[in-house]
């Protein structure tokens, strides 16, 4: 889990970004040092919860195990997953993330509405690595 990238549980789960007070640009992942907008002289950055829903801007699938530094157990079979780029209209940004388990590229379409939900990136006997996933709004499980 990356500290400060998301908060809450269930219906209250949100990704956390930052907004520049000078130019109103929103950033994810969050930025705590300076405004990333090259046309902005900079301003105070405030933490903001991002919209819980957006529309699919693009998507693809991961059919092979990525090379290092990606960490995965080579003893376990590789399970493909869908990767979704979601446009958050009010923030005017695109956020990348995995689809929830069971959703494949065959289930997705550009423009489809999705929502952010808590997820698990990986687990071992000692801990689970928390993350976020995108789920089509019609899917309730």
How would you describe this structure to a colleague?
The chain has 141 residues and is mostly beta strands. It has no helices and nine strands. Strands 5-6-7-9-8 form a five-stranded mixed β-barrel. β1 (6-7) and β2 form a beta hairpin. The chain is globular and about 50 Å long. The two termini are 23 Å apart. The mean pLDDT is 90.
Set out the fold topology.
Blueprint: E1 6-7, E2 14-20, E3 26-27, E4 45-49, E5 53-62, E6 81-88, E7 93-99, E8 113-123, E9 128-136
Parallel strand pairs: 7-9
Antiparallel strand pairs: 1-2, 2-3, 2-4, 5-6, 5-8, 6-7, 8-9
Question: How is the largest sheet built, in terms of strand order?
Answer: 5-6-7-9-8
> How far apart, in Å, are the first and last alpha carbons?
23 Å
Based on CA atoms alone, the radius of gyration comes out at 16 Å
Question: Major sheet: size, sense and barrel closure?
Answer: 5 strands, mixed, barrel
User: Structural class, from secondary structure content?
Assistant: mainly beta
The portion of residues forming beta strands comes to 35-45%
CA-based shape? globular
What is the averaged pLDDT score? 90
